Amino acid sequence: MSDLLRNRMSVRSSKRDSTMLSSSPSSPLVFDKELPEVLNLKLTVVGPSMSGKSCVTQQFCLGQYVQEHEETIEDVFNKKCEINIEHPAHRTVTSKRSVVCNLELIDTCGNIDTMNNMSRESISNSDGVLIVFSVGDNDSYSAVMTYYDEVQKIKPLVPTVVCANKIDDKVLISDTAIMVVAGACGKVPFIKTSAVARVGIDECFSKLVNEVLDRNYLCMMDSTTSEETVAARKSISQRLSRVFKK
């Protein structure tokens, strides 16, 4: 990683943290609505071709590893599961430790350049988005910001988690590099996974559901994104592409 990129990320992170701290007294946590008995959510999975996003989705829904052979156009899976509630404030209000979820998962096409209207509509109607990339592919990694920016254009502020997949294979992307791109994506959570060994798969979707809970049921009064922040993300995306495609 270049010193310029590291310094820019440090400055941006400091500004973001100071903004959040300064706004805390006037932006208390509030509960918009009660958690339902069963939570119905639509989640969309996006990512570059050969990142293993279809394998991640099918491992979670079907409990088995299905090797990808053909490029996905769009597949839909349904899964009913119980998700542990991570945020203590939710548990305080609801007295629940978990929530039953009916999840509809949309596995989209892999190439962002040919993302069809069906995929864009799926993102627009989604409660949360999972961005999958391969830790064994620099191009896959450098595409994460491009996917994030595109998702934000379609549905701003949609809850998002980054999935660093294929940790069972040759690893080229370090944890530090993953944290850099997650920070560039507004400090979204990231989970390291292996669809082959079923490592981190459940945690990945559990984290995304909890991000949806935090956004929709426990939110800050002021959750807007400044034009400066949006511009910074786009700038970082361009620099990442130059750095990691060399």
TrEMBL record:
GO molecular function, one term: GTP binding
Entry-linked InterPro entries: P-loop_NTPase, Small_GTP-bd, Small_GTPase, Small_GTPase_Ras-type
Residues covered by region (Disordered): 1-28
Any GO BP annotation: signal transduction
Keyword GTP-binding: yes
Keywords: GTP-binding, Nucleotide-binding
Superkingdom, taxonomy of origin: Eukaryota
Record has GTP-binding as a keyword: yes
Gene3D superfamilies registered for this protein in UniProt: P-loop containing nucleotide triphosphate hydrolases
Gene Ontology cellular-component terms listed: membrane
Protein name as annotated: Ras-related protein Rap
